[in-house]
Amino acid sequence: MARVHPTALVEDGVVLGEGTAVWDSAHLRGPSAIGRDCIIGEKTYVAYGVAIGDRVKLNAFVYVCTGVRIEDGVMVSAGTVFTNDRYPRATTPDLGELASSDPDEDTTATLVGAGATIGASAVIGPGVDLGRFSMVASGAVVTHDVAAFHLVAGLPARTIGVVCRCGPPLLRVGPGEALGDHDDLVCDACGRRYSVTGGHVTELGS
To answer: Which of 51, 74, 158, 192 lies at a 20 to 30 A Cα distance from 118?
Structure first.
């Protein structure tokens, strides 16, 4: 069964998978779904309509807004903020009424692919997707989609390399430089092999 800290607020309609741990002062809104063997860190907020896969780690102070879907095996480090509104305003145009916080036609969706990592204090812009096993550096502000296995950093975030499934970089480039094409990149840590063609990373057989 799931383990929920006594100070956590888990609303009706939240589904927690077997073995998932929800730590102190987290707030999970319903309806939402969180898979098996996940960690939801202290003071983390998960909005309604969010779907989280299995074996996902959300560290402390993570903000996950409506419209976000996180696949299996994703790491979201402390202080990460997801966003979902391209044109946010507090009020109606005449300043006469508080604007609704409910989703509308400008609310965007974000997909975080399986195995991806998001570094501490990163900001994920509205409507941005992160590819499988991609890696976002700490403090990055991500304004465009990130391709699978790409390493991005900066403000705005740009590709600065390619990473292995196990994490270490296979290739690094300077800001604004192309990755180039590579027939056979081998991970020094685990021996997995990859090719890169036109920025697309392909896993190769052993």
So the answer is: 192
Residue 55 has phi, psi (to 5 degrees) of 55, 45
CB 37 within 8 A of CB 53: no
CATH code for the structural domain at 3-178: 2.160.10.10
pLDDT tens string 79-101: 999 999 999 999 999 999 999 88
Exposure pattern of 109-136 as b/e (b: 16+ CB <10 Å)? ebbbbbbbbbbbebbbbbbbbbbbbbbb
Rounded to whole angstroms, the maximal C-alpha distance in the chain is: 64
Q: How confident is the model at residue 206 (pLDDT cuts 50, 70, 90)?
A: low
Tell me the pTM. 0.96
Q: pLDDT tens for residues 146-168?
A: 999 999 999 999 999 999 999 99
Q: Where are the domains of the chain?
A: 3-178
